[in-house]
Design brief:
The structure holds two protein chains of two kinds.
Chain A lengths: L2 H17 L5 H10 L17 H14 L6 H13 L3 H9 L3 E2 L6 E4 L4 E10 L6 E5 L5 E6 L5 E6 L8 E10 L5 E4 H40 L1 E2 L2 E2 L4 H28 L6 H29 L10 H13 L6 H10 L3
Parallel strand pairs in A: 1-4
Antiparallel strand pairs in A: 2-3, 3-7, 4-5, 5-8, 6-7, 9-10
Helix pairs in contact in A: 1-3, 3-6, 4-5, 4-6, 6-7, 6-8, 6-9, 7-8, 8-9, 8-10
Chain B lengths: L4 H15 L4 H5 L4 H18 L17 H13 L9 H14 L2 H12 L4 E4 L15 E5 L2 E12 L6 E7 L10 E7 L5 E6 L8 E12 L3 E2 L5 H37 L6 H30 L6 H29 L15 H7 L1 H5 L4 H12 L12
Parallel strand pairs in B: 1-4
Antiparallel strand pairs in B: 2-3, 3-7, 4-5, 5-8, 6-7
Helix pairs in contact in B: 1-4, 4-7, 5-6, 5-7, 7-8, 7-9, 8-9, 9-10, 9-12
Bound molecules: flavin-adenine dinucleotide.
């Protein structure tokens, strides 16, 4: 990580820490915009930091670390699409004030040659605040921005256990798209879709390692201060060893993520990048869930209270596991190593 | 020494193709230790000459001064070519060399590092019957008499000590004060009078480690590494090199050895078994993470940013992953795997003799500080959790 990026990342960490865990969207989204966090992956020629996917992931990890409620992930996907479709107008708009959201799982919809959108997009964060949504057709042959304020779109908020994200289902009933907002068609669209899915998986991996790191830090801190049997709980080796195993698991997930990002390099739209992203994501989200589960267990009764933060980590971790591409990655990895079953 | 990565890869690959002993696996299957030692020496000599035995040594030493990228390429290619593992030279190349480089006087380095390249063998004499995990409890006594230490005691579990020329010996020079403060680190010539070695049979059928008995053995003061009473600190760097650096090569080997698992699945006609495919798919990213952790650790060593506990994470993750790896092989091998086959010496941690490999994987969860000890280190030094109270009653 270069100096400029790590400085910006550190300041993001400070700013988010000052807002507190799971700070609301109203507070954190303006910060993301004002402090230029959306520009991390934008090429320098277009006024960004030119830090690519690895730079973006450093910020996704901060979002995870602070359980940030800002819809940074979908906004970064929209930005990635604008960058790679060469849409300077949208890069500028997204970086300055506009908010475009995107589904965090693959949508099931069609986009005709004439730009008519029909079908469904699930897990779309903060859709009520977005002007547009970034959509890819299920067939992968079209990627487009679609304005949300128009007839034929039914947006429904779906309450999730994870309260740090507000997800919507969007139903499109033959909505006429704007041809000027089609970002890619045909093979270009396939490549762009893959790029976006890969970014999404890596972002979720980063969110997970960030969240897991905070969850473990808080757990260790709690065990050091909570006393039972006349001593701090942290003195019990059974508990120390569980924490050490979690630490090793997080370190492995972080190392795998960092190494995969290096291996991907600038070829984010390759099939290899897609496979690396899936594996890194699955490895990281399962580590996150394991840490969050242990966090709850090791906090005892207080961990069951709504007031305490344990459940926020657990719920975000459980949701993270279901976002992105959730095909069984183990079987994908086996396919790569053994050939298709 | 620095080279364009791809040029180095081509060079190493070509060299390996021309130099790996033909059919070495067959030759090392069911063989005795003497034949093994001969074969290892021959292979080691070739690697040293080519400059590939010591990529982890610093600048200025033959074969040393390689960047992380170059070291990785060499280890990857060695693994890819399925070359014999330099198990006989393991302690010499890592434990002894890294300790001497960090703590040795110029004279000691000059006296011993070239010798390692000439094939001198080393063993590690730390553990004792009553000082295993609790290494600071070492009791082997060294008394200073004039310009020599006179040593009495017993070491145990010392890997390949029966072949060693020298021993990294941890001894007690002081019984007052905290136990760590009374330890001193010596270089013992195994041919000294009063040293006797007795191999111990292992569960794998090998007799890979030995007991060392020390009876009025004399070691010159000039063969002390670090000051008297500094033995604990010196021993920590030996252990850190074992826990971290050695795992770059071993992790990359494990990555290549995934093809042993896939090969076995195909050979056994279970390549389509969904449960096994899932286990394989879960294992492979863990192996990738082991490589990434080891690489990251090596980079920290090169950049001097190592923190306490880093090496423990590398070792703990590797050891658990190796256990999963060999356990999966064992499961796939099925009943066929239970029929005893001769094992391959120098074949590394994944020889494809699955019961052997599985049992041998306990080497990494027990030796060099067990998993439990690594967890203590991580919890105490990285997470800042308190140490056990010292006093206890039954
Ligand atoms: C294959 C092999 C090769 C070896 N090679 C060498 C060598 O070359 N040179 C050398 O000096 N030594 C060598 N050793 C010795 C090795 O370092 C010791 O076996 C190891 O440190 C454990 O000590 P121990 O066997 O006395 O077990 P113990 O210390 O008695 O441990 C028994 C069990 O108790 C656990 N335990 C111990 N203390 C704690 C604690 N504080 N908290 C929780 N659990 C604990 C251990 O993890 C282990 O599970 C080798 C060992 C093996 C198996």
């Amino acid at each position: 990580m270069n100096a400029e990026l790590s400085e910006l990342r550190d300041s993001a960490r400070q700013v988010l820490a000052a807002e507190g865990l799971a700070a609301p969207e109203d507070k954190t989204w303006p910060l993301a915009l004002d402090l230029g966090w959306l520009l991390v992956a934008v090429p320098e020629a277009q006024g960004g930091l030119g830090q690519g996917l690895a730079g973006a992931c450093a910020f996704h990890a901060e979002m995870g670390r602070s359980l940030c409620a800002a819809p940074y992930l979908p906004a970064m996907l929209a930005m990635e699409a604008a960058i790679h479709a060469g849409r300077e107008d949208w890069i500028e708009r997204l970086g300055a004030s506009g908010f475009v959201t995107a589904p965090l799982v693959d949508p099931t919809l069609t986009i005709t040659d004439g730009g008519i959108v029909a079908g469904m997009a699930s897990a779309v964060p903060s859709a009520d605040r977005a002007s547009h949504v970034l959509l890819g057709s299920e067939a992968g042959d079209c990627v487009a921005l679609v304005a949300l304020q128009q007839a034929g779109i039914d947006a429904r908020h779906r309450e999730t256990w994870d309260t740090t994200r507000r997800l919507f289902d969007l139903r499109f009933d033959n909505v006429a798209g704007d041809p000027s907002l089609v970002l890619a068609r045909g093979n270009d669209a396939h490549v762009l879709s893959r790029r976006l899915a890969t970014h999404r998986d890596f972002a979720l991996a980063a969110d997970a390692v960030g969240g897991a790191a905070t969850a473990l830090e808080m757990t260790v801190e709690y065990l050091k201060t909570r006393r039972q049997f006349g001593r701090p709980l942290a003195l019990f080796q059974a508990l120390k060893h569980r924490c050490a195993d979690l630490k090793a698991r997080i370190a492995a997930a972080e190392a795998l993520l960092a190494d995969s990002l290096v291996r991907v390099g600038t070829e984010v739209d390759s099939e290899r990048a897609e496979a690396l992203g899936k594996a890194a994501k699955s490895f990281a989200v399962s580590a996150y869930a394991a840490v969050a589960e242990e966090m709850l267990q090791l906090h005892g009764g207080i961990g069951m209270t709504a007031e305490h933060a344990c459940h926020l980590f657990l719920k975000r971790a459980l949701l993270d596991e279901q976002l992105g591409r959730c095909t069984s990655y183990e079987l994908d990895v086996a396919d790569t190593l053994l050939g298709a079953g | 020494m620095s080279q364009a990565p791809e040029a180095l890869r081509t060079e190493v690959r070509a060299w390996l193709q021309n130099n790996i002993p033909r059919d070495w696996r067959a030759a090392m299957t069911g063989t005795d230790q003497d034949a093994f030692v001969r074969a290892q020496r021959e292979w080691f000599g070739k690697l040293v000459k080519a400059g590939y035995a010591t990529p982890h040594w610093p600048e200025g030493w033959p074969g040393g001064g390689r960047s992380l990228a170059e070291q990785k390429i060499i280890y990857e290619e060695v693994a890819r070519a399925d070359a014999p593992r330099l198990i006989l030279f393991f302690v010499a190349l890592y434990h002894a060399a890294c300790t001497l480089i960090e703590w040795g006087t110029d004279e000691q380095k000059r006296a011993h590092l070239p010798g390692i390249l000439d094939g001198k063998l080393w063993c590690q004499g730390f553990s004792e019957p009553n000082a295993g995990s609790d290494l600071a409890a070492v009791r082997t006594r060294a008394e200073l008499r004039g310009d020599r230490y006179v040593i009495n005691g017993q070491k145990i579990w010392s890997t390949l000590a029966q072949h060693a020329d020298y021993c990294l010996l941890l001894v007690r020079t002081d019984t007052a004060g905290p136990p760590q403060a009374g330890l001193t680190y010596l270089l013992l010539d195994m041919r000294s009078k009063g040293v006797s070695v007795r191999p111990i049979a292992q569960i794998t059928g090998d007799d890979e480690f030995s007991e060392i008995f020390l009876d009025d053995v004399e070691v010159p003061v000039s063969d002390r590494v670090g000051g008297e009473g500094q033995g604990w600190a010196v021993a920590q760097s030996t252990l850190a090199s074992e826990r971290g650096l050695t795992l770059v090569e071993l992790s990359h080997r494990m990555r290549y050895a995934l093809n042993r698992i896939t090969g076995l699945m195909r050979a056994r006609g279970v390549a389509g078994d969904a449960a096994l495919r899932r286990d394989l798919g879960r294992l492979a990213p863990k192996v990738d993470a082991a490589c990434a952790l080891a690489d990251q650790y090596l980079l920290k060593r090169i950049e001097n940013t190592e923190a306490p506990g880093d090496a423990s994470i590398v070792k703990l993750h590797y050891a658990r992953t190796l256990r999963d790896f060999t356990a999966l092989g064992l499961r796939i091998a099925g009943l066929q795997g239970q029929y005893r086959e001769p094992f391959i010496r120098g074949g590394g941690m994944e020889t494809g003799n699955w019961p052997f490999d599985f049992m041998n994987s306990y080497n990494w969860t027990i030796a060099g500080g067990s998993d439990e000890i690594q967890r203590n280190i991580i919890a105490e030094r990285m997470l800042g959790m308190p140490r056990e109270p010292k006093d206890w009653r039954l």
